[in-house]
Design brief:
The complex is a heterodimer.
Chain A lengths: L1 H29 L4 H5 L15 H7 L10 H31 L3 E2 L2 E2 H10 L5 H14 L6 H26 L2 H9 L4 H9 L4 H16 L3 H6 L7 H10 L4 H28 L1 H5 L2
Antiparallel strand pairs in A: 1-2
Chain B lengths: L4 H28 L16 H9 L1 H31 L7 H13 L2 H11 L6 H6 L12 H29 L4 H8 L4 H28 L4 H6 L11 H11 L3 H30 L3
Helix pairs in contact in B: 1-12, 3-7, 3-9, 4-7, 7-9, 9-12, 11-12
Classes of the chains: A mainly alpha, B mainly alpha.
Chain lengths: 282, 287
């Protein structure tokens, strides 16, 4: 019984590992192929099946005028939009979460939980519902196809995540520490900045990670609200897919775009193993 | 504590969110009562005409909605079962525990559309590795151009992408469980299966409900994957609600009609998710 269980366990883990890794391996080998080795039948092993070359990687940094793809600018655009929107969402979300965790609000039948739910429920909103008004709205104030417009939209996507994680986190930070600070003569803002925030760094990091993930992986809004002036990385890479598909540069650019968040996976795992996530996710 | 300060903490975030959202939502409602299209752009008033058309004369919308329900419920069930299994396996000591934990998290960190582009080459019918390996058995499924199989391709990609999120939520839950019930079960000499059924699973019920609902919310938006993988095709066989609204609104520029569809879609989403949440709570938390 026990042996069978252990066998099944490792069998399942191995199968899933193969499934997880397969597309990455395929992308990695494909990125070193050329036209011949992609279109002449399926090949797997470099040197044995096909002669590897670096063309797929080289075009990534060439300018479009010289037949390249130039993903550097979209890369920094993506990075800038994601980080700015995450930062704003975290700051505003943390303040609101602190208020919702420490004070009681009551306006008619609306109580703390309802306000928290209002924040979180914004995730239910299908992006398509917002996309049409945002499209018309941003074009009327000339923010279509601009970084600012995207940041505004991303705040709506990310702030609910920040509030969701931080409310639960602040609920775990003992109230006594802010009360002590207040007795010691701090005003509430000082108490928040000097005492509560330093004690909430793990929560802030987790919330930040989640904001960055969900900002970085968004495609839909970038796709609808930007065209030529500003291009984000996912849109650029998907656009590669439409023409005669250069599988090698496609694979190389996909790997480049995926790389930074692998670091995030390590950080998330670290906080998971320390038990800091368990309070945040409930 | 002091009364006034609390508003300074709450209001910046709340008002920014409301400020950004209030206009779009009111505008969608108003737009849905207009006949805005590419010939006639403008907010005229045509009453409920769009809604009447939607409810009486547009089977394609309802088909896409049922397809969406099928896809999201199937993927979430699969993600829950696999995610729970994986979380349970790397919960206690196994070799290379942390390596597997990181590895199982990686897919959710990757941009869905970009990975879908890779999946497209992966499932390519003549040049992809899947059909190359399957050719040993003499079969070559049409992953992207067969109406039935294409749905399963979408499911496979979605499961790959989002099982890690389920895994993360459930593992975080498992790690936060109290130790005493497990000690008691060990003293009673319960077998692993009985321990799972009578201790682990009941303790995980609230977290499971939360995780399933979070994933259902996210899955109800399936759109990116479909757009890149099949563009809703072949025919309309993988078209989801979002994608259909996208085609009507931002491809054919029938803004008014698309707005009425998106408002209806939003209302259906809120109602059905509330019902699902209630039912799940009843089912799993019978005390």
């Amino acid at each position: 019984m026990n042996k069978l269980y252990i066998f099944l366990k490792y069998f399942f883990i191995v199968v899933w590992t193969v499934f997880v890794v397969a597309p990455f391996l395929w992308a990695l080998t494909t990125s070193f192929k050329d036209f011949q080795s992609v279109n002449g039948g399926v090949t797997y092993i470099p040197w044995l099946d096909f002669e590897p070359n670096l063309e797929g990687w080289k075009v990534l940094i060439k300018s479009p005028a010289r037949g390249g793809v130039d993903i550097i600018e979209p890369y920094f655009n993506s990075l800038f939009v994601t980080c700015t929107a995450s930062l704003i969402s975290i700051i505003l979300g943390t303040l609101s979460a602190y208020a919702l965790s420490r004070y009681t609000f009551k306006a008619g039948f609306v109580k703390n939980n309802d306000i928290t739910f209002f924040f979180i429920s914004q995730r239910i909103m299908p992006p398509i519902v917002l996309s049409i008004p945002f499209f018309l709205f941003l074009s009327s104030i000339n923010l279509l196809d601009s970084l600012t417009g995207l940041i505004v939209v991303y705040i709506v996507l990310l702030m609910p995540i920040a509030v969701w994680i931080m409310v639960d986190f602040f609920n775990k930070v003992p109230r006594e520490i802010d009360e002590t600070a207040l007795i010691d003569g701090c005003n509430p803002y000082q108490a928040f900045l000097k005492v509560v925030l330093p004690n909430s760094i793990p929560g802030l990091i987790v919330a930040g990670m989640f904001c960055i993930i969900f900002g970085w992986i968004d495609f839909f809004f970038a796709f609808i609200l930007t065209f030529t002036e500003v291009q984000l990385l996912p849109v650029k890479i998907v656009a590669l897919n439409s023409s005669v598909t250069p599988w090698w540069s496609l694979s190389a650019s996909a790997l480049v775009s995926v790389a930074p968040l692998i670091i995030v996976a390590f950080i998330v795992e670290r906080y998971l193993s320390k038990g800091n996530l368990s309070g945040a996710i409930k | 504590m002091n009364f006034k300060h609390k508003y300074f903490f709450l209001f910046p975030g709340l008002f920014v969110l409301i400020g950004i959202l209030i206009f779009p939502i009111i505008f969608v409602v108003r737009l849905s009562l207009s006949g805005w299209n590419s010939y006639n752009p403008g907010l005229d008033y045509i009453g409920l005409e769009n809604y009447i058309r939607l409810f009486t004369d547009d089977p394609r919308f309802w088909e896409s909605f049922f397809r969406l329900s099928f896809l999201s419920v199937t993927t979430v069930i699969l993600q829950y079962v696999i995610g729970f299994a994986l979380a349970h396996m790397v919960w206690k000591d196994i070799k290379f525990k942390r390596f597997f934990r990181v590895l199982f998290l990686v897919p959710m960190m990757t941009t869905p559309v970009i990975m879908t582009v890779i999946w497209r080459t992966f499932f390519h019918e003549s040049l992809g590795p899947v059909n190359d390996m399957l050719s040993i058995f003499g079969v070559a499924p049409k992953w992207l151009t067969d109406p039935v199989i294409a749905k399963f391709t979408v499911i496979i990609v979605e499961v790959w992408q989002w099982t890690p999120f389920m895994f993360l939520l459930l593992l975080a839950g498992l790690l936060s469980l109290p130790k005493e019930p497990f000690l008691a079960a060990a003293i009673d000499g319960a077998s692993p299966v009985r321990k799972f059924i009578y201790v682990t699973f009941p303790l995980m019920a609230p977290i499971s409900i939360g995780a399933i609902i979070i994933r259902l919310i996210e899955a109800s938006k399936i759109m990116d994957t479909v757009y890149v993988l099949t563009s809703g095709g072949p025919g309309t066989s993988t078209e989801t609600s979002s994608f259909y609204i996208f085609i009507k609104g931002l491809r054919e520029f029938q803004m008014g009609y698309a707005a009425s569809m998106s408002f209806t879609y939003l209302i259906i989403m809120i109602i059905s998710l509330t019902i699902i949440a209630k039912v799940l709570t009843k089912l799993l938390l019978k005390e």
